[in-house]
């Protein structure tokens, strides 16, 4: 008997089979991953989320077609988002520690293999060929083959150690990247859109007559779970963003704060605002010149300066110099950039003609 069980804490797990079974290829094609530390399969991206009933049903159909009896258990009780995030942080730290230890072990083994190879090769004179007619030929050939095999294995282990160390660094930085202000803002936008989509579908189901009653009731239950999960996630991450704004790690600009001709900071540079939109600002592209623009969402802005600000001259000079470096031919043709440059023409002139 195979058991597919879903809980928020563990995700969707399949118990009763092994990686060596003939079902491995089938399960991998359906999105399942083998967990060697536990000894079961888990559906990808199923932890702390509503059950993926479609994927579960496809898996059940494939398993039963292969002659297996399958039992499905789904627990729809969510766990608090803060608890899930703490658990995620612990898992990431554990994975980073495990991969770091493995990288160190691989590096040590690679060094041992290289040392073993060098112990043989260092005793062979440079350029010394195999003496085919000498009594020591067979032994010498075997020693050289072992040395070359050890050297090749050392290189392979060193490469694997590098990949493992990189994976460890990724795991160690996981929570930091997850709480990056840009990432948090993007997640809030995604959750808001998903919540609106679920609510629209739920409202449409209440008025439709084209879906059988049983299917409608089932889908309404699924959507209600999706809505609850999205609301909990959205509430948590909005609190995280509010804390970041209060700490100065993120900004909270809107259309009311920014006007055409202002300077905004995005990533590592300053840009002049061409237009303030409902959800973003349009800035000219110094790389292409002309009237080409691109947009930057308000939540991604890092700073903002207006022409009447005490910081304007300092920021404007740095912005114009950087834009000229990026612009084709060093010329800024956009009218907005021209106005910014004119506002600090004396300082720019002094920089270009220090004498």
How would you describe what is shown here?
- It is flat, with a radius of gyration of 31 Å.
- By secondary structure, the protein is of the alpha+beta class.
- The strands form 3 sheets. The chain has a 5-stranded mixed sheet. The chain has a 3-stranded antiparallel sheet with strand order 7-6-11.
- It contains 10 helices and 11 strands.
- A hairpin with a 3-residue loop joins strand 8 and strand 9.
- Helix 3 (81-121) packs antiparallel against helix 4 (137-172), helix 6 packs antiparallel against helix 7 (213-246) and helix 8 (312-326) packs across helix 9 (335-343).
- The chain folds into 4 domains: 2-77, no CATH class; 83-176; 179-246; 263-352, no CATH class.
Number of helices: 10
Q: How many individual β-strands? A: 11
Envelope shape: flat
**Secondary-structure-derived class:** alpha+beta
Portion in helices: 40-55%
- Order of strands, widest sheet: 3-4-2-1-5
Taken together, the total number of domains comes to 4
Instruction: Characterize the largest beta sheet: strand count, sense, and whether it forms a barrel.
Output: 5 strands, mixed
β-strand amount: 5-15%
Q: Which segments are poorly predicted (pLDDT under 50) over 5 or more consecutive residues?
A: none
| Mean pLDDT across residues | 91
H and E string = EEHEEHEHHHHHEEEEEEHHH
The CA-CA distance between the termini, in Å, is 88 Å
Radius of gyration: 31 Å
